[in-house]
Design brief:
single chain; about 180 residues; mainly beta; Immunoglobulin-like; 3-stranded antiparallel sheet; 11 strands; about 0% helix; globular
Length: about 180
């Protein structure tokens, strides 16, 4: 699926492809076709995988945030469960890696409920230094106090939320979990 990303703090066009668990290596090449809104296209476009951050490796399992857990599961009543604190564990070296992170909650009644940072924020993410505690209270974006969820969570509805790590080259790795308040 391709997406136009106007003013999102990164490249203007981007795509996400599922490699079915295969971790790409630096230098691996992929060929694709770009189709433009005016009906023209470029075929046989080839791109190579670039390095992750300052290393010679691409993003992989060691770069994933782990332990994704919404707290508030045992709180008193549905109100607590519908406004969880989203927490995770940064990968080793996150404080010095130069990696940015994004948290996203989606897929209830609407397709996108809340992103930290906001998709329209002109930034690619937050750093370990900005959120060193690896947790975000529902409705409180530590990077932008005007960024609020599109809607509240509904008890009994399944949602997914994820933490994405991105390097300076735009390479990303994402860990996702499900939550039913």
């Amino acid at each position: 699926m391709s997406n136009f990303c106007q003013g999102c703090g990164s490249v203007e066009f981007h795509t996400f492809q599922n490699l079915s668990g295969i971790v790409p290596n630096v230098g691996d090449t992929y060929t694709f076709t770009i189709k433009y809104s005016d009906g023209t296209s470029d075929t046989g476009v080839t791109a190579a995988v670039s390095a992750f951050g300052n290393t010679s490796a691409t993003v992989g399992p060691s770069d994933l945030a782990t332990g994704l857990l919404p707290s508030g599961l045992t709180g008193p009543g549905a109100g607590t469960r519908a406004t969880p604190t989203l927490s995770w564990t940064y990968p080793a070296g996150a404080s010095t890696a130069g990696t940015s992170y994004q948290v996203s909650v989606c897929c209830g009644v609407s397709s996108d409920i809340w992103d930290v940072p906001n998709q329209n924020s002109n930034t690619n993410g937050f750093t370990y230094a900005q959120i060193p505690g690896a947790s975000i209270t529902w409705g409180v974006d530590p990077t932008d106090n005007t960024n609020l969820p599109v809607s509240n969570l509904t008890v009994g509805t399944q949602y997914n939320w994820s933490v994405t790590a991105q390097d300076a080259n735009g390479n990303q790795v994402r860990n996702t979990t499900w939550y039913v308040p």
